Amino acid sequence: MTVKYSFITFSFGEGRLKHAKVLLASLKQFSRNDVEFLIVEKGSRFLENTPYRYIPVSSDESYNRALCLDAGARAARGEFLILHDIDIPLPSGFFDNLDRMADRYRYFSTYNEIHHLTEEDTDRVFSHPEKFRYGYYGFTGERMRRFGGDVRGGSSCIHREIYFACGGMNPAFTVWGGEDEEFHVRANLLSPCGTPETALVHLYHLPADRDPPVLHADPRYIKNVELLAKTHGDPRGVIKELKNRR
């Protein structure tokens, strides 16, 4: 059977292993033959023995999200690529929602709202990852974000032709920040992004930008800001550059 969706997620070392166990447990509820799951792991082999396609990558950077997602996209066989963070477990209707959106869009978010769990509720989920279901706990949301307001990443779905036509995720982005928005600018230019009326749950972790002065002084972060500004200023030029590098 033709693969309709390639679900791509990633992990770095031990920092998100508990989150990974919850996400992987949530994948077990799906038995569709037209979906493949790809696990990209950088710098370790903790998730090598999952029942899903495993893609190890190497990088000198401690955080290179764009590199991992792009490695998954290059290996994927699906018509649509789902670029998904490992700290967001899936609800039972996830792929039904994608089917509805894929009939209308070639690039779309998989959610309208992301509800961030408190540390306490996330610890409850960690204690029984196999039992996690949306609505199973009486969650207390730490905060909520809406797609297109203060977030454009976390989980998105894009037709493979659009992904490669816009240049894909840019692996020049290292450390935290900017890679999602920069990719969105290019992808949205070629195929306007759709947004469903659905919500996802985000498991708690310490924020990557918890020490803004240190992060903002990091030369790698400054480079991210410059890359983002360049794409906002000349998205078609950046698309051409990225495609020429492939």
UniProtKB/TrEMBL annotation:
Ranges where the Galactosyltransferase C-terminal domain occurs: 150-187
Superkingdom, natural source: Bacteria
Gene Ontology molecular functions: glycosyltransferase activity
Record keywords: Glycosyltransferase, Transferase
Protein name per the record: N-terminal domain of galactosyltransferase
Organism in which the protein naturally occurs: Candidatus Kentrum sp. DK
Lineage: Bacteria, Pseudomonadati, Pseudomonadota, Gammaproteobacteria, Candidatus Kentrum
